[in-house]
Each structure stands twice: as C-alpha cells, then as structure tokens.
Amino acid sequence: xxxxxxxxxxxxxxxxxxxxxxxxxxxxxxxxxxxxxxxxxxxxxxxxxxxxxxxxxxxxxxxxxxxxxxxxxxxxxxxxxxxxxxxxxxxxxxxxxxxxxxxxxxxxxxxxxxxxxxxxxxxxxxxxxxxxxxxxxxxxxxxxxxxxxxxxxxxxxxxxxxxxxxxxxxxxxxxxxxxxxxxxxxxxxxxxxxxxxxxxxxxxxxxxxxxxxxxxxxxxxxxxxxxxxxxxxxxxxxxxxxxxxxxxxxxxxxxxxxxxxxxxxxxxxxxxxxxxxxxxxxxxxxxxxxxxxxxxxxxxxxxxxxxxxxxxxxxxxxxxxxxxxxxxxxxxxxxxxxxxxxxxxxxxxxxxxxxxxxxxxxxxxxxxxxxxxxxxxxxxxxxxxxxx
Length: 388
Hints:
By secondary structure, the chain is α+β, with helices and mostly antiparallel strands.
C-alpha cells in the first residue's frame, strides 16, 4: 500500500512537472514573440511592399487630368495649381536615339521647345544606379528586340519588374529607342498610417505619420531614425529625407517656394540638402501616392528629322510616350517607368493619278549630286508640244 502511494505520488509529480514544462515553454514563446513582434511586423510589411504595388488609386492617360502634367524634361515652368511629373526613362531613350543617329535630334522649323533641353542630356546614365535601368536604341529587328527583352529580364529579374516582352516582328522599317526604370525602396521600419485623413488644400487624403501614438514607443523610435530633416532660411519651409533600405538612394520631400522652373527648384533643394545641418523633428505627416499614368508626347509625334546624317534625315517620329507607376506609403516607395520613341521612313502615299496638268518642276542631275544640271519650272504650255 505504501509503495502504491509512493508510485502514485511520483506519477502525479511527473504530470505536474510535465505541465509546468509545457507552461514555461509557452510562456517563453509568448515572451519571445512579444519581444520580436514589432520587428517581425515591420519586416513583413516592408517585404510586402518590395514585391510590388497594391491596386492603383489612379490609372489614366495624362490627357484625362486637368491639373497634372507629365513632362519629358525638367526645364518646364512651375505654375500654380498644376502638378508636374517627370521621370528619367524618356530622356534615356532620347539619348540612345541621338547616339544611334550620331548627332543631336533636330526637327528644323517649329520644333517643340523641349527638343533643345532634351538635347542637353541633363540626365544620363551616370545619374542612375546601373541595376535600376535599361536603355537601348536600334533598328526594330527581331535580333534587337530579343536582346532588349533579355536585358530587361536579366536586369530586373523575375518577380520584380518584367514588362510585357516587345514583339519581335514589326509592321514596317523603324528605328526605336527604349528606356526602363525600376526602383524599390522599402523602409526598414514601417511608419504608421494616420487614423484621420490629411487635409491637403481642402481635399482629404490618406497619409502616414510620426509619432505613432500610445503603445508604439519602440516602433516609433525605430522609425524616427529613418528621418532626416533640415530647415532652409526661408520662412515656413522644411526638407525631409526618408531613409530606406537602399541607402544609396535618397527619398526627399521638400516644402519650399518653387523657382521659375522645375529644374531650378530641384537645384535649389539639392543645394539645401547638401549644405544644411540636420535639425530636430516634432512630427511628420506625408500624403500617400499610388498612380499609374501614361503620357503620349504628342508635341513630338509627326515631326520629321532634320539631321545631317542622310541615313535618317526625313524620318518621322511616329511614336513617343511614357508610362509612370509610382507608389509611396508607410512601407516605402516603388517606382516603375517605361518610355519609348520610334521613327520611321514615311511610307509612300497610296497610288494617285499622276497627271502633270498643273505647274510643275523638272530637273536633271547626275548620280547622287546635290546639284542638278538642268531645271525647268513649267507654268504654261508655251514650250510644250502642241497637239494637232
């Protein structure tokens, strides 16, 4: 009987120890999860952003927008009440096209103002991370397009940004230039989405913020380390840099009075960022962006190349456009853009009745000589053979 009680007591003790072990095990897991949850949550959100976009809140052609312009170059005036969007790929495509032709792209009389600025190449490959772009130009042949498609796939990799492959066959003789850009800038520590909308000039918009509020001191402290701020001498101005995992890229937001042009405003902000000391920050509220806008540069389409290279002189721009997809939220920023430009030799007009019954020019020239050796402008029938 005594032996049975001892055995039974040890059995109960074993169960108690087992239950205590289980209890301590789950307590340990709870403590570990509580300790690491903030980091886990932030990492999860950041990685989710890096995989791609959420659904766009604005998908349209630029022509549908009344207060926003997508521009091909930076030297455009900053006017009140108008958004300006510029992205490098069209300039990259322009540069590649000019290199292919072997000289600046010119259209002769009445060419758009943007042409002279695009020819300045104020933005080129030296200004970009080699892992974020692809740019090329060539005759639209199957071989050229296969190489371009392969370069895009190799540079951006599967699962990040691989645009639809371009068709390897084309309907006519054409030279084409392409520019692609893909940048993903996740924050290491996510910011906090605001509970209430931000009033942006009377319009409620979504935003993210610092501070986070009660119960998020650790997350708030970590996110605060991702913010640098400086204060220009102008009244009511500030510049904020949001530091991402890609530390060589700089995400800068500047509340400053604009200069006359977008380029001058960029230069002004860059000068401040490079020279002013870091200041302190009380709070931060940044509006969200999530748009997908396509722009056809109609001001360029239809113009004929007036270049010295006789191979391409007389070719007409039949395509010039760009798509810009941008998203910025509490997890980071993602930018994708594709631009293209195409020129083709004007196709012969449809057959007509070629009857010289109106004034015309007749000339004779030798081989490829630019100067003819006989010219006749026929304006009346006096020198023509009369019919009996």
